[in-house]
Amino acid sequence: MAKDHFSKTCQNCGGELHITRMECGACGLAVEGNLKLPRLARLSAEDREFIELFLLSAGSLKEVGKILELSYPTVRNRLDRVIAHLRDLDLDRRTERLKIIHELEGGGITAEEAARRLAEIS
Question: Between the CA atoms of 15, 19, 21 and 27, what dihedral angle is there, to the nearest 10 degrees?
Fold first, then answer.
């Protein structure tokens, strides 16, 4: 499987990269803003490749094991790890939402600021 070199981490400082501009190659229409990477794009390259192979194998862990020359339990553990990573992404989002709500309740931010920040998390 070909390795992609896409990273969610800044090679300079280690911070999280964000999409800020998308542009149509045909007409030049551009969308700008602080756009979050899709959940699957926030997984490591290794995990994304595993998911791609899993899908191309029609969800057969046995087939994935054959292709990667790994035992079924090893492949199952990798899938469980990817699932855990995706759940962690959900937990991070929920934690951030609760933080914003607590800030609003404590008077630290306005309702408008809370609404804007909550919309960015979605």
Answer: 150
